[in-house]
């Protein structure tokens, strides 16, 4: 039986979810967010974006044990969008590549100073619940606004609606799988074993879930506030 997993290719549904709402100046980014901690104290958020106004791309956000926040991006247009919404102490521009293996259920990230090999586990209980919601509803800004109070109580540090960089942003979660193993390095230093995202990352108004996971999302970014 076919089991969708977070290495799957974008579908027609994904394309429709990622449409730009030009009438309101909103931009939608459809893909996956992988959030993880490590026993070294380094926490990492990887974005694998399949359908966006900028085309497909991947990026990574790294917060080390001392709290230094680094954005790793492949292009200047990606940097402008992400750094315009989130806060970083440093930006590194380098090719960022994510390879997925559906048989071994792995993600491999090659991003200059950041090297990762991730093993994806089974769908989480939250992922099972998310799949009960029609995708168009789950991806909507209205739904993200409605469930934000619940997300804050159930998943400490997680928000589905908030303001960052002078823009309102919404996270629409459609599915989630656990991360079960990590091997990698940051700036040449081994990360150690997989660990919870603790303390929460501080790039924007929301962290990823505490438990390491890969979440299928549609992120909507609004226009600058006036």
What report would you give on this structure?
- By secondary structure, the chain is of the alpha+beta class.
- It has helices spanning 12-17, 76-83, 125-130, 135-138, 141-154; strands at residues 27-38, 43-51, 57-63, 69-73, 90-93, 97-101, 106-111, 114-123, 161-164, 167-186, 189-190, 194-195, 213-224.
- Strands 1, 2, 3, 4, 5, 6, 7, 8, 9, 10, 11, 12 and 13 form a 13-stranded mixed sheet that branches.
- The longest helix is centred in the middle third of the chain and has 14 residues, at 141-154.
- The protein is globular and about 45 Å long.
Task: Give a nutshell description of this structure.
By secondary structure, the protein is of the alpha+beta class.
């Amino acid at each position: 039986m076919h089991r969708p997993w977070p290495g799957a290719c974008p579908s027609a549904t994904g394309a429709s979810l990622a449409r730009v709402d030009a009438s309101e100046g909103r931009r939608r980014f459809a893909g996956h967010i992988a959030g993880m901690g490590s026993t070294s104290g380094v926490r990492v958020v990887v974005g694998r974006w399949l359908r966006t106004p900028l085309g497909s791309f991947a990026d990574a956000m790294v917060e080390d044990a001392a709290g230094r926040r680094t954005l790793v991006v492949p292009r200047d247009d990606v940097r402008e969008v992400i750094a315009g919404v989130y806060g970083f102490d440093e930006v590194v521009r380098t090719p960022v590549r994510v390879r997925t293996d559906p048989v071994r259920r792995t993600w491999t990230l090659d991003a200059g100073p950041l090297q990762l090999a991730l093993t994806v586990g089974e769908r989480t209980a939250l992922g099972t619940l998310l799949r009960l919601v029609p995708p168009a509803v789950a991806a909507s800004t209205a739904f993200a606004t409605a469930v934000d109070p619940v997300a804050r109580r159930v998943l400490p540090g997680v928000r589905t609606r908030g303001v960052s960089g002078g823009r309102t942003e919404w996270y629409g979660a459609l599915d989630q799988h656990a991360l079960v193993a990590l091997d990698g390095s940051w700036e040449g230093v081994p990360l150690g074993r997989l660990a919870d995202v603790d303390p929460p990352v501080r790039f924007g108004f929301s962290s990823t879930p505490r438990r390491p996971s890969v979440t299928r999302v549609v992120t909507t970014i609004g226009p600058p506030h006036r």
